[in-house]
DNA sequence: TGGGGTCCT
DNA sequence: AGGACCC
């Protein structure tokens, strides 16, 4: 591809050590390296033009627009989408009334009492819509090897270099349709010749152009394949993509077009909403001048809080200024950053790799590729925040709720028929629910892109605690996994992250219990129970060096001080194939042997529970089954089948009839013993939720490898 | 002061 | 496992 493109461009070598003058310095170091092989050295000021064509697309106030698709009565209103105490985003009507993005709900309401609040804590709907946009764009550029990268839920990077150059090539070969000074950009390879758009050959860009005088001053006659013409053509393609997103999904977008990601993104936010901007520099000086318009270096993607804080600190040391607080201090401007931080300074502060990168970014150099977002994510996590959650029962209860929602997401996003996410083709109705006046969830099919035609729909309005305010709330309809649906990815690892009242996050991970994949034989409640048990084990395990001796639980985590502020559960390490059974069950199996797991799978749980108690216990022990758990689960399931007719309709009622996870009090061993099995390896009796991890951490804080082949007496520290 | 994600060390 | 970045 590089060679193809190099032929049609005035390709020229640009040594990466050459002074960064003229257009040559627009090139990223990487691109320079690639192209260097093609020709001999050019004058430094007329190097090859940058050759990538990047579109950054930003969905305008995404959560608000998405909410308006569900509830057209929000159109034209000042709307804030809240997550707990914070406004994730707000509508432009709200911004006109003084509401700011990321302000507190309290603050926003003070400024704008008429603000309509929408609950945005459940991301299901936004996630679906976001994926739909991604698929739509990828469907257009994908056939030409175009790459689409999702950044969060509301931004896309699109690399259309191949696509645009292929069109130009076709045009030069006379293969395009032309009519009265216009050319048809055919967007589908061959199958749909009508898919595409017409553009005029005058070389006029669509939308805004920066720098302001750039386009006017370059009216020279240039071949269509110069980088300026290619960028201008790209603005037409950007408009086409934005029109598709608007017509097929009903969302407006802003976009930036430039030759790299960082500039495309910067420029995309210069004109919002529903506008696009092309960055068309004539020289490196143009780039630097543009960047110097930014009063805050943080506007450049890659300069985050920690980096800027460190830079300011370093600056303060030399300019004898107080190393002030992070937020209170004035922003660091791009021009000051560039002047005050030569390459050597940056590499000293941040290491060679990051230092070089930051140095380039300050000059608009960015060689970061558009990394195609894979069909399946690398991790899926859910989290919730609390105000000092403490007490084992309370924590365990939340753990079960979180485990259940994680499983719901895993089923929704990792199961399918093989093509992945079939449930959500463009144009197909999304099945959502909203609450009626009485708080009952009602079906509400959402045909996309018909805003305003739903009549007067009002979501259920719930008061939030201290404010006399209503919050509108929507949720996804539960869909039953079809018979043909199977797991497409298997998370091998589960990670628990928590935050204590004061500090930072800490996390621990362990193997995912394989039971969660048994959607056919186990209800979600059962699987959630298993997962929650594993997570409680993770929570109580404590890190190495903590809670030694008596199997002492690091109880401060649950009981002490401020309690938990945040719980996050992540499924990661997503494998394409179902993993082999873990030896965790057999570890506790009295008879040992790898066959135990298979035998256990063949046990009919309901049949087992019919047996007389003594026999039941014996069989259960042999198969590594925790009886109390199974009894409770099966019992609850039968009960709920009896009176509801088996639909899992009410989320809230789902857990009411479940017994709590047995209390894990190390000071009462009897309690443990009554609901646990004894490890055949070291003899310790473990509560159900501690069994999973026991193989790795037989005694709290003591790794298994240090124990050697412990006897029962050595191992039973509890 | 949210509920997510990615990559690097 | 943690820390940085992104939204």
UniProtKB/TrEMBL annotation:
GO terms for molecular function: DNA-directed DNA polymerase activity. Gene3D superfamilies: 3.30.70.270, 3.40.1170.60. InterPro entries: DNA/RNA_pol_sf (IPR043502), Rev_trsase/Diguanyl_cyclase (IPR043128), UmuC (IPR001126). Transmembrane segments: none annotated. PROSITE patterns: UMUC. Residues 8-18 have a biased composition (Low complexity). Signal peptide: none annotated. Residues 54-304 form the UmuC domain. GO terms for biological process: DNA repair; translesion synthesis. Residues 1-46 are annotated as: Disordered. This is DNA/RNA polymerase.
């Amino acid at each position: 591809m590089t060679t193809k493109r190099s032929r049609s461009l005035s390709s020229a070598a640009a040594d990466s050590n050459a002074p960064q003058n003229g257009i040559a310095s627009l090139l990223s170091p990487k691109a320079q390296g690639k192209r260097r092989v093609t020709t001999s050295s050019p004058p430094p000021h007329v190097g090859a033009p940058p050759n990538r064509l990047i579109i950054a697309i930003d969905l305008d106030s995404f959560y608000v627009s998405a909410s308006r698709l569900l509830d057209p009565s929000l159109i034209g209103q000042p709307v804030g989408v809240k997550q707990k105490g914070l406004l994730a985003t707000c509508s432009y009507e709200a911004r006109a009334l003084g509401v700011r993005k990321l302000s507190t709900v309290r603050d926003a309401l003070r400024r704008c009492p008429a603000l309509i609040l929408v609950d945005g804590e459940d991301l299901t709907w936004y996630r679906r819509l976001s994926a739909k946009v991604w698929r739509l764009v990828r469907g257009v550029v994908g056939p030409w090897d175009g790459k689409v990268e999702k950044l969060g839920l509301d931004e896309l990077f699109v690399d259309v270099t191949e696509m645009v150059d292929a069109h130009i090539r076709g045009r030069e070969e006379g293969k395009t349709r032309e009519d009265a000074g216009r050319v048809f950009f055919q967007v589908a390879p061959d199958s749909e010749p009508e898919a595409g758009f017409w553009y005029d050959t005058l070389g006029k860009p669509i939308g805004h152009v920066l720098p302001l005088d750039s386009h006017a001053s370059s009216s020279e006659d240039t071949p269509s394949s110069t980088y300026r013409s290619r960028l201008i053509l790209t603005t037409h393609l950007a408009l086409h993509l934005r029109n598709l997103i608007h017509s097929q999904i009903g969302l407006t977008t802003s976009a930036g077009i430039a030759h790299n990601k960082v500039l495309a993104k910067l420029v995309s936010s210069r004109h919002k909403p529903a506008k696009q901007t092309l960055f068309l520099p004539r020289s490196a000086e143009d780039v630097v001048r543009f960047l110097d318009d930014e009063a805050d270096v943080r506007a450049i993607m890659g300069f985050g809080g920690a980096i800027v804080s460190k830079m300011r600190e370093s600056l303060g040391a030399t300019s004898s200024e107080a190393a002030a607080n992070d937020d209170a201090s004035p922003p660091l401007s791009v021009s000051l950053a560039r002047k005050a931080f030569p390459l050597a300074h940056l590499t000293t502060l941040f290491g060679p790799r990051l230092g070089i990168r930051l140095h380039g970014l300050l000059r608009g150099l960015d060689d970061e590729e558009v990394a195609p977002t894979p069909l399946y994510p690398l991790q899926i996590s859910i989290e919730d925040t609390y105000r000092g959650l403490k007490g084992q029962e309370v924590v365990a209860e939340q753990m079960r709720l979180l485990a259940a929602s994680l499983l719901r997401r895993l089923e929704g996003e990792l199961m399918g028929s093989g093509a992945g996410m079939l449930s959500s083709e463009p144009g197909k109705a999304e099945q959502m629910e909203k609450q009626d006046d009485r708080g009952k969830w009602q079906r509400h099919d959402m045909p996309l892109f018909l805003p305003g035609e739903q009549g007067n729909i009002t979501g259920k309005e719930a008061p939030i605690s201290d404010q006399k305010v209503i919050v509108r709330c929507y949720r996804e309809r539960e869909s039953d996994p079809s018979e043909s649906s199977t797991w497409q990815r298997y998370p091998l690892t589960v990670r628990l992250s928590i935050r204590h009242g004061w500090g930072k996050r800490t996390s621990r991970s362990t193997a995912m219990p394989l039971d969660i994949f048994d959607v056919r034989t186990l209800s979600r409640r059962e699987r959630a129970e298993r997962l929650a048990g594993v997570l409680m084990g993770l929570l109580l395990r404590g890190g190495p060096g903590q809670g030694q001796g008596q199997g002492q639980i690091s109880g401060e985590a649950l009981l002490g001080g401020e309690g938990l502020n945040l719980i996050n559960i992540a499924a990661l390490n997503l494998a394409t194939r179902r993993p082999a059974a873990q030896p965790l069950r057999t570890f506790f199996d009295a008879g040992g042997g790898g066959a135990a797991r298979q035998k256990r799978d063949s046990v009919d749980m309901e049949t087992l529970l019919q047996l007389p108690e003594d026999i039941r216990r014996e069989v259960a022990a042999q198969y590594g089954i925790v009886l109390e758990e199974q009894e409770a689960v099966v019992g609850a399931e039968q009960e709920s089948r009896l009176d509801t007719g088996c639909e899992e309709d009410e989320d809230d009622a789902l857990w009411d009839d479940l017994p709590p996870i047995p209390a894990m009090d190390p000071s009462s061993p009897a309690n443990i013993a009554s609901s646990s099995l004894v490890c055949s390896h070291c003899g310790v009796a473990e509560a159900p939720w501690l069994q999973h991890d026991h193989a790795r951490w037989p005694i709290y804080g003591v790794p298994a490898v240090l124990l050697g082949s412990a006897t029962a007496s050595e191992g039973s520290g509890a």
